[in-house]
Amino acid sequence: MTHIDAGAELDPVHPVPVPVPARGLTAAEVAERVARGQVNDVPVRSSRSMGEIVRANVFTRFNAIIGVLWLIMLFVAPFQDSLFGYVIIANTGIGIIQEWRAKKTLDSLAVIGEARPTVRRDGMAASISTSELVLDDLIEIGPGDKAVVDGVCVEADGLEIDESLLTGEADPVVKKPGDQVMSGSFVVAGGGAFKATKVGREAYAAQLAEEASRFTLVHSELRTGISTILKYVTWMMIPTAIGLVISQLVVKQHGFKDSVARTVGGIVPMVPEGLVLLTSVAFAIGVIRLGRKQCLVQELPAIEGLARIDTVCLDKTGTLTEGGMDVTELRPLQGTDESYVRKVLGALGESDPRPNASLQAIIDAYPDVEDWRCTESLPFSSARKYSGATFSEGNGESSTWLLGAPDVLLAAGDPALKETGRLNEQGLRVLLLARAGRELDDPEPANGARPAALVVLEQRLRPDAADTLRYFADQDVRAKVISGDNAVSVGAVAAKLGLTGTTVDARHLPSEQEEMAKSLDKGTVFGRVTPQQKRDMVGALQSRGHTVAMTGDGVNDVLALKDADIGVSMGSGSEATRAVAQIVLLNNSFATLPSVVAEGRRVIGNITRVATLFLVKTVYSVLLAVLVVCWQVEYPFLPRHLTLLSTLTIGVPAFFLALAPNKERAKPHFVRRVMRYSIPGGVLAAVATFVTYLIARHYYTGPGQLDAETSAATLTLFLISMWVLAIIARPYTWWRIALVASMGVAFLFVLIVPKLQHFFALKLVGETMPWVAVGIAAVAAVALELLWKWVDRRVPA
């Protein structure tokens, strides 16, 4: 609340004090501060810089290993044995290009969704970019606005600021001129202006708030799982590679260079070098696809997170309904004159410089009366559920009015509540206009208020909301509507959209978390929820193991959005909600959410598939190396053979499979799901290949023996790897069948074209041994089918 002080100017026509607003900096003063570097130059990052993208893709542990081996091969072996190095360069280039494209998409969308504070310069208010703020700028703030720099309050009109994201203090803090305003806090009620005292890198609170709001990474099971797998792979690689190096240099029957080449051929396929690339490419393409739908993903793993949710909490206003409302009826109470009520409503609308949707509808319906002047105001607050103002009427009389929720302003047995209930059951929103019997600065200004009229508002339902709710129901995702509005009204709106279930008044919810969680499991629609309760409800759902997404657009949703597993904000929402959300729907369309869920499922399902392909290769490479060391024989393959196999059975197919549509519901335990297929598949492939190799060693003699043995072993390994690919590609579609078949045709092409035979050192000798190799591969394929079916039954994910 703000009283006009005695030192203000007097309007000569209306003898009511008029405050003199501060004019802010002049253009010359702004230019002077820019020249001195006193600019808010801390960039609001939405993605990695180009330098960070290049470093992240080039300087990896496995690129270092592959790079050293590649340099060795360039000196000791033919060009075709160093092909794997060029593949790594191509992979790295693809990764950089795709992430750069995603960065461009993110950055362009971030500009659209960027906070643009309103500053007062030369007495005029204008919205500018955050980076254009300078020291001593006068910044205007209202409900939902976030303080982007540190400052000191200069003007306050019922200004209440929430600092909970910084201090943990749940209650809003009333600010008066001279009080500190912390960057990262946000306005929950009232308005005012503050002067910037710390900008740029001096505003440490701003940096902390940005870190807390934008860069707290969403938990990504995919990212964590791949890191765990790569850690285990490294542990397996080091001792195996050392043993392989020693054994090959000891065997050395075919010369030093050939032994080195075969050693490198054993080490290179142990590295799942394309797995990280494909994961980042899948995420990057997901960002680009969603960007085309005006969906800003502020944290990449949020795509994955939304695909894992089982509960979505929806704020009614702005999510299920459009922001605007229409006044459909005015019902005077207790014989109040309707024309007088219209004047009061017009004056109330004029008294709030930043009206919410309800008040804006009243402003549109009832114009201001010129001879009424506001002398004191109480801004609307989500916690209070009402606003108020004191007026000096044209006839010199003074009156105080309240406008808000009837069930909050009226006593339980008041007759007006029955009428309100009937209107709420029709899905209409009802506000009560009441004449206050106390001053606005009284601790309980609503006590003793006399009802004057009911204002009936109709909310506009989003045309796409029903289809979106139906989609979530089909996907076994439970929807909970959580609103500050009357429970009956919210329940009626939800019912119109096809959402059925119990409606609960949140004022009767238990405060203890476990009991609240039980109530939340039973109910579907919750009304009269306070901002703190929204946060508590998210925590209660999470305490029962639910993965919770929260959508909202108002300042009262900020705390719940922050605590939810995934926060989703509307682009037209308040600055504070956009800052804490991981996903911002810039087109304000709730219907975009299924696209985000689908994109997440595509990424998770497909990466799980292709990770199995990569890790089968890693397992059989490590086991083959161990078998070679134990038998003290030459490693059966040169790098060129495994480059060919990796390209045809993993590299090319994995790229297409990773980007394919996939509607499977995301399942947990990524590492366990991948390893339970990779280990048996890799072991079978290694054993079958090594058996073929040992038989071939006894079958072939004389010059060219090793090349013939290698060709037979390569044939077996290729056929088993193709069968693994065929299983991973299920369920079949025409393009999946064509993909698998084309890889088989490509290998056959290599076997029958003389130049390609020579280039890859592959030539099947005789008829007996190649058919033995095919027979062993067929037995291994049947064993693989049976083993994976057994794993499905006995080793649940």
Any overview of this molecule?
With 797 residues, the chain is an alpha+beta fold. Helices cover 51% and strands 17% of the residues. The protein has an eight-stranded mixed sheet with strand order 11-24-23-22-12-19-21-20, sandwiched between helices. A seven-stranded antiparallel sheet has the order 1-14-15-16-17-18-13. Strands 4, 5, 6, 7, 8, 9 and 10 form a seven-stranded antiparallel sheet that branches. Helix 17 (513-522) links the parallel strand 20 and strand 21 (523-527). Helix 9 (273-292) packs parallel to helix 22 (639-658), helix 21 runs antiparallel to helix 22 (639-658) and helix 21 runs antiparallel to helix 24 (705-728). The protein is elongated. The model is unreliable at 1-20 and 209-217 (pLDDT under 50). InterPro entries: ATPase_P-typ_cyto_dom_N (IPR023299), ATPase_P-typ_P_site (IPR018303), ATPase_P-typ_TM_dom_sf (IPR023298), ATPase_P-typ_transduc_dom_A_sf (IPR008250), ATPase_P-type_domA (IPR059000), HAD-like_sf (IPR036412), HAD_sf (IPR023214), P_typ_ATPase (IPR001757). The chain crosses the membrane at residues 58-77, 83-100, 232-251, 271-290, 610-629, 641-660, 681-700, 712-730, 737-756, 768-788. It is found in: Cell membrane. Keywords: Membrane, Translocase, Transmembrane, Transmembrane helix.
